[in-house]
Design brief:
The structure is a homodimer.
Chain A lengths: L6 E7 L3 E6 L4 H7 L18 E6 L2 E2 L8 H5 L2 E3 L4 E2 L3 E4 L24 H6 L8 E7 L11 H13 L6 E3 L1 H13 L3 E9 L2 E9 L7 E7 L3 E8 L4 E9 L9 H10 L3 H22 L7 E8 L1 H8 L21 E2 L12 E4 L9 H9 L9 E6 L4 E5 L4 E5 L21 E7 L5 E5 L7 E2 L1 H13 L18 E4 L2 E7 L10 E4 H24 L9 E6 L7 H6 L11 E5 L1 H11 L1 H13 L1 E3 L5 H10 L11 H11 L1
Helix pairs in contact in A: 9-13, 9-14, 11-15, 13-14
GO molecular function (chains A, B): iron-sulfur cluster binding
InterPro entries (chains A, B): 2Fe-2S_ferredoxin-like_sf (IPR036010), 2Fe-2S_ferredoxin-type (IPR001041), ATPase_NBD (IPR043129), Beta-grasp_dom_sf (IPR012675), Corrinoid_activation_enz (IPR052911), Raco-like_middle (IPR041414), Raco-like_middle_sf (IPR042259), RACo_C (IPR027980)
Protein name (chains A, B): Ferredoxin
Chain lengths: ~650, ~650
Amino acid sequence: MSENSNIFKVHFLPNDTHVEVNDNCTVLDAAHKANIYINSICGGDGICGKCKVILSTGTIDAPPTKLLSGEETEKNYILACEASVTSDLQILVPKETRLEGKKILLDQNEQHYMTWKAILEQARFKHDALVKKICLKLQPPTMDDSVADHERLYQAIMMDQNVELNVMQTGYRILKKLPEVLRENDWTVTVTLGHRGKVLEIIDVQPGDTSKINFGVAIDVGTTTVVACLLDLQTSKVVDSEAVYNTQMKYGEDYIQRIIYAIQNDALEEMQRSIVTDINKLISTLVKRNDIELEYITSVVCAGNTAMHHFLLGLDPERIRKEPYIPSANFIPPIRAIQLGIDINSRGLLYTLPSVAAYVGADITSGAAAIRLDREELPTLLIDIGTNGEVVLGNKEWMVCCSASAGPAFEGSGIKHGMRAAKGAIEIMHITKEFEVSYSTIGNVPPRGICGSGLLDCIAEMLRSGIIDRSGKFQKGIKTDKLREKDDEYEFVLVNRDETAIDNDIVISQADIANLIRSKGAIYAAVSLLIESMGLTIGDVHCVYMAGGFGNYLNVRNAITIGMLPDMPASRIKFVGNTSLTGAKMALLSEDAFETVQNIASQMTYFDLMGNQKYMEEFMSANFLPHTNLDEFPSVQEELAGNNT
Amino acid sequence: MSENSNIFKVHFLPNDTHVEVNDNCTVLDAAHKANIYINSICGGDGICGKCKVILSTGTIDAPPTKLLSGEETEKNYILACEASVTSDLQILVPKETRLEGKKILLDQNEQHYMTWKAILEQARFKHDALVKKICLKLQPPTMDDSVADHERLYQAIMMDQNVELNVMQTGYRILKKLPEVLRENDWTVTVTLGHRGKVLEIIDVQPGDTSKINFGVAIDVGTTTVVACLLDLQTSKVVDSEAVYNTQMKYGEDYIQRIIYAIQNDALEEMQRSIVTDINKLISTLVKRNDIELEYITSVVCAGNTAMHHFLLGLDPERIRKEPYIPSANFIPPIRAIQLGIDINSRGLLYTLPSVAAYVGADITSGAAAIRLDREELPTLLIDIGTNGEVVLGNKEWMVCCSASAGPAFEGSGIKHGMRAAKGAIEIMHITKEFEVSYSTIGNVPPRGICGSGLLDCIAEMLRSGIIDRSGKFQKGIKTDKLREKDDEYEFVLVNRDETAIDNDIVISQADIANLIRSKGAIYAAVSLLIESMGLTIGDVHCVYMAGGFGNYLNVRNAITIGMLPDMPASRIKFVGNTSLTGAKMALLSEDAFETVQNIASQMTYFDLMGNQKYMEEFMSANFLPHTNLDEFPSVQEELAGNNT
C-alpha cells in the first residue's frame, strides 16, 4: 500500500494496464499516461461529460456534477477529468467511453478503381509523380567524351525529363557516392527525382534499374482520424489504405482545445510526436501488410487543416486562435520526412499541401483540386463538413471560402449517441408516420450509435413525421411512448436497448437536435453569405460538391429538407466523400495536381465570419427547419405542406 | 632504450618535437606523424632529394643515393624518405628543408583599392553578393490582412528583391523560429538570402536590423598555398588576407602524388580534414585579427584546381589520374560549409567554382572571369602558371583551354635554389656582360632562394650575357669562376654564401636550366597548339594575360626572350597575379560574376594534350631559347643578334 506516499497505482480495465501517478493527478491524466483513450470532447474541462468511467475500487476526490445521472452515480460512474486520485484505484472504462473496435470507415470507392491513372486523366492531371524514379543508361566516358560524372548524369536527366540543367540540385551525399554507383552496374542507374518548387532534386542514385519500385503515401491528417493510402507511384495503383484515430484526441477533441493544451502545458513537442507516431504506425502497417520495405517509400503528401499542419510540423499554433488569426505558414516547403521523424526512405520528401488561412486548411485546397473547382465554368460550391465545415464557392476565375464553425455534430461529437462513420453506426434511417424507425448500420451489425448521414436522415425524418416542428422542438402531443422525458430533458428513442450493442437505448435528445440544427444552420449561413458576397443567388450555383466523413451514402434530399444545402435539384448535388485524401493522392501522383493545389490556395479569398454581422443574421435565420424564410426552400415547403394535409 | 621493442623515439630539432614510431617507418613518416613539414617534391619516392635532414644521433638504414653530395654525406645528411628508423633518433631539419618563416607573399595590389566595388564595376559585374543580408520592415498582420507569417515574409522579399515567389526556399528550422523572430523587434527583421542556382534560399532570419554585418571569405585553394581573403559583403571592402602552406604537401608536392597517396593509404578522409583544417585556420586568424564573430561569415567561395576541389569535398579523386581522366563533378552545388567541417555561420554556404576537366580547374575558370575573357572581342590568351600551367584562348564567342604539364619549376620546385614568392626570394635579377649579378629580394632581406620571376630573369639574363647558349647549355669557355663544376654537374654561382641567409651559395645548375626550359617550352607549345587549333596565328592574338604566383613583378620582356610567351609588343601582355583568388572575390560579391564563371566553365572546350603528336612536336621545338624556329621570335632574334656583335 502507498497511503503514506504521494504515488498511487491506477489499474485500468478492461485493458489491464497499470500506471503510477502523483496524488495531484486526475483519472484522465492517469489514462493519458497509460496511453488509454478516454472520450473527452472538452479536453478535460468538466463540461462535456463524455469521459465517464466506473470506479471499481479505491477513492477519488471529485466535485458534484450534473453531468452524471442519479442512476450513473449509483453505479459508481465518475468523470475521469474531474476525479483526483487519492488512493490506489481500479478503473473500468465502459464501452461508450472507449475507442477500440471502432474501426474507421475507409472510402469504399477505393475498391472500384484498378488504377488512379484513370482518375488523374479524368481530372486532366498529367501523371508525373512528385517523387519519381527513372532508369538511365549513360554512355561511359571516353577520351573524346570526358564529361565529369555529375554533369554526365545531369545531361542524361535533362534529355530524359526535358528540363533545364540549372533547375537541378544534388545533395552532397549523393555527389560523394556518385562515381561508384555509376560504375557499379555499367553506367545503368536509377535516379530518384523530387520536385521542390521549381527545382528538381536528385534525391538518390542507385545502381541498375530499380525504377519499378517506388511508393508514396497520401495522408489525410484529420483532427479526429488520420487516414493513409499507399500508392504504387510507377503504376498509379492504390495498394492499400489504413486509418487510425488521431491520438492527439487525448489532448482535446477539437483543435482549439489542443492548441490551448499545447500552450498551457508546453506540450507542442509531445503533441508533434503524437501525430508523427500515428503516421508512422499507419505507414508501418501498410508496408508490413504489403511486404514493402520502408525505404521504397520516397514521398508522403499530407493534407490536413491548418492547426494539424502546425502540430505535424511542430510550428507554434498559438496565433491560430488569437486575433488576427495568423498561421506560421500556409505554404510549407517540402522537407525530408526524417526531419520530422517520419520513417520512410531516409532521403524521402514530405510535402504538405497549402492552407489558405487559420481556419481554411489544406484539406480544403486539396478537396477543391480533387473536384477541379479550378476548371469549372460556372459558380460551384464545395462544402466539406468535418469538425468545422468549410465552404468554397468559385470557378476557374475566382474562389472565395470561409469556415463555418459548424462544430463536429455531424461527426457525432456533442450528440448523445453520435459516433463517427465506423462499424455499428446507423448510416441510413427512416421514420414512418407511425413513428416506427427502420435503419441500417455500417457492417450490418447491431447499432452502437449514429453517424453523420444517419443523424441527417434522423432530423429530416422526424420533421417529416411530425415528431419535431420546424423549430426542432419535440411535438409533445404525439402519440408514442418513444418520446419521453428523462433527467429534465425530452428525448426520442430510436432503437431499443435490446436491439443495440451498447446495453442502452439509442436516443436523440432535444439538445442533440438543437446542436445539429445549429450545425447545419452555420453551414447554410456560410453558403448564403458567400453567394451573396459575390452578388449571386442560389440559382446561379451550378453544382454543389459535398465532402466529409458522413458515411458511405448521404441522402442529398434530406440535406435539403433540413436546410443544410440550398434548395436545388438533387442531381446537381454530388456527395464526394473524403476529398482531402483524394487531393493528396492526386498530388502524390502528379506534380501538376500539386501545383494546382498551390494555385488554388494562392487564389482563394478568405472571408472571416467571426464578428460578421451579416453572417450572424443569416445564421439566426437558418436556425430553423429548413429555414426561417420558407421561400428559399420551395420544394421543402411543398413537401411539408403535403405532409400536413 | 627500446632496443628490444619495435617502438623507437624520434626527436626532431629545432622544433624539439618527440614522436614514437614503429621500426618499419622512415624518417619522413616520423616527420608526418610529428606534423613537421619536410620538403619533399616526389612525395617520398627517393627521387627529388629535397627531404635532406641531418642525423644527429642514432642509426638508420638507407640505400646508397646519388642525391647527396660527398660533403653532405660527411655532415651526416640523409634522405628522410629513404632512411628507415632502426633506433631512437635525433634528427635536425635544416633550414632549406623547412617551411617556417617562409611567409607567403600576398597580392600587393590588395592595398591599392579601398573597395572592390570599383573592381566589380570595372569588370561590369553587378554588386549582389551570393549571400546577402537585407533589412525588411513588414506590415504587422490585421484582420483585413491576415497573410501567414511565412508568406508575409516571402512577399516582402519578393518586393525588395524583385524575384518570383516560387524561386524561394526556406529551411525547416527557419520556419519554426519565424513567428517569434518576426514579432521580437516589431516586424523589423534581417533576412540572409543565399543564391542556390535559380533558387534564393532564406538562410536565416534575425530580429532587428543586422544587415550591416555580413562577411564572406574568398579562398584560392592552391596545391601549394591556400590564400584566404576576408571581405565585408555590405561595403565590398577587402578587410584582410592570410595565406598558409597547404599542409597536404606532406602527402606529396603535386596533386598527382597526393591522389596516389590517398588511394594507396585510404587517406582521403584524412586529406580532406587536412585541407579543411587549413581553411579553418585561415578563417580563424582572419576573424580574430579583425574582431569578427565566426557567425558573421555567411559564405565562402573556393577556387582551386579539380583535384583540390575533390580533396576539399572528399570526392574520390582516383579517376582524375586514370584515363579517360573523369572528375566526379566539375560543377558542385553550394552546400552548407558545416557539412565539410568548415567553421562559419552554421547555415552559411560554401560555393566551389566550377572546373572544366580533370586538369583545367576552377582556378582557371575563375581567372578567365576575373579578366572578363568572356567580354573580349578579339582572341585573348590567359596563361596561368602554377604547378601545371594552364592556357585558355578565347573571346566572347568561344574558348579553348588545355593544361600544359609544365611542372612546378617556376614555383621553385625541382630547382636547386628555387623557392616560392616569399620573403627572401630573389624576384628581380640582372646579369651584366661581365657576369656580375645584381638582384633584389622580396622584403629586402638577404636572399634564401629564387622565386619564379627571378628564375625567369635569370634564364633571360644568362642568355643575353652569353653564360648559356640557345640550347641552355653553359658556355664553358666564358671567363669567370662563377661557372664551376660540382658533383659532376656545372652550376653558376648567382650569390655568394656570405651574402645569403642560408649558409650556402645560391646557384643555378645545368639541370635547373633544363627544367626551366622544359617548363617554359611546355607552356609555349600549349599556347601554339591552341592558336593553331583555332586556325589562328600569334598575330591574331590581341592580348595575353599572365597569371600565377611569380612574385610582385614580372619582366614580361624576359618572358618573351626565353620564349615562354609569344613575340609581341610587351604592352599587350599584362601580368595579373593571382586571378584565381580575384575571381573568387568577385563571385563572393556578385552573383553575376558567379554565374559568369559557370557560363565560362560550360563554354570552354578542353583539349587534352596527353598523347597529342602535334603538341609533342611543338614542345620539342620550344625546348630551345627562345625557340628552334627563331622566325617566330623576330624581336628576340634582333636582340640576340645585337648581343653577338
